[in-house]
Amino acid sequence: TAGDAVPASQRGSWTSFLKSIASFSGDLSSLTAPPFILSPTSLTEFPAYWCERPDLFAAIADAKDGEDRTLAVLNWFISTLKDQYTSRNESMGSEKKPLNPVLGELFYGNWPDKNDRGLTELLVEQVSHHPPITAYIIENKSKGLRLVGHNAQKTSFSAGSIIVKQIGHAVLTVSLPSGTKEEYLITLPRLRIDGLWYGSPYIELAETSYIIGGGHVSLIEYKGKGYFSGKSHSFKATVTPMPGMGGQGKKETVIEGTWHEKSQFVKGGSGDFHDVHAVKEQVSPIGGGEGGEMGDFETRKLWALVAKGIREGDFETASKEKSRIENEQRQRRKDEQAAGTTWELKHFAQLESDPVYERLGKVAKIVPPTEDTYVFQENWPPVA
Ligand code: CLR
What we know:
By secondary structure, this protein is α+β, with helices and mostly antiparallel strands. The chain is 24% helix and 32% strand. It is built from seven helices and 19 strands. The protein has helices at 11-22, 54-58, 66-92, 299-302, 304-312, 315-339, 355-363; strands spanning 38-42, 97-99, 106-111, 120-128, 133-140, 145-158, 161-167, 170-175, 181-186, 190-194, 202-213, 216-223, 234-241, 253-258, 262-267, 272-275, 284-286, 348-351, 373-376. The strands form three sheets. A six-stranded antiparallel beta barrel has the order 6-7-10-11-9-8. α5 (304-312) packs antiparallel against α6 (315-339). The longest helix has 27 residues, at 66-92. It is globular, with a radius of gyration of 21 Å. The structure holds cholesterol (CLR). Cholesterol binds at residues 28-29, 37, 43, 46, 49, 84-85, 95-98, 151, 153, 164, 166, 193, 201.
């Protein structure tokens, strides 16, 4: 029945939270939610989900040709979905409402070298507060791999579910030993958040996303329960060679399965394609300051007391600390306005339209035809 998973004392506030989302579309992060649904983690930590199997990321560099690389990229991409979309359910029992990052919030981390896969580094910056936009770079320098992307969300409510349209994209650049650079455009699926009525939200992926590059277009279709395989978290990936992009003479490959468990080749190959059995490796957070110290804008330091309060059930402290951070932000914006200045991003610069998105997106007639991008600034730390 309704609110089954909600602590009795919070049922009323859960119902009013649901009412407010039903009559609202836009930035969900600004709505006040009951304590049981709060997560102690800020959205700036989410880009780490892209690399919780760093060996599969590194393996992209070891592929022998464009076709092999396309499948390695797809294999790595599929491996990230379980962590991106089901890990809160596994660790906290349901999807939760993440902390809403402040402008300029930072998160640094890495996955150490192991078995010659090389060191993989992560850098995240909150580049906008209203609407929330998170930019990130994940780089394995020794393998010549670099993933740069940004994320934002547009939410709406339909038939009892929250629909999340993801805005933003990622570009994976592979620097080949020959000196050439190969680029892959990665677009993002749509999310449906179900289970709200019971107070135990979970994500199902919907519609499609693309990976375009390496002479191929990979179209990934997402279906929930009751569609082509009858199982939840199902997908079908169709990898089509593009003659104009160097894919001439190559064959089409089709893969089907579930993105949180197993998938198989159904065309152009045989046997298993991906099995999400490998243990995930969570990112090791590092301080971005000199000597590895954490600055005041680094997420784990900034939100430390709020997170502690949420974890320990001390919601009074959590909400007091949250208000303190928010008030400080409001004051900062006021001061900037009075001084005629604006906040300066540390690592990224916004570009109105992304030439890589336009060029590769055109191949699969992606909508919209252009998107903005956040370009990583190489000159960091700035030399005095
Ligand atoms: C952020 C980008 C990541 C993938 C990802 C996973 C979960 C999403 C999150 C993104 C955006 C914020 C999100 C969250 C699930 C719930 C949360 C949509 C897309 C919303 C704001 C909170 C809703 C509150 C309910 C849980 C009641 O790569």
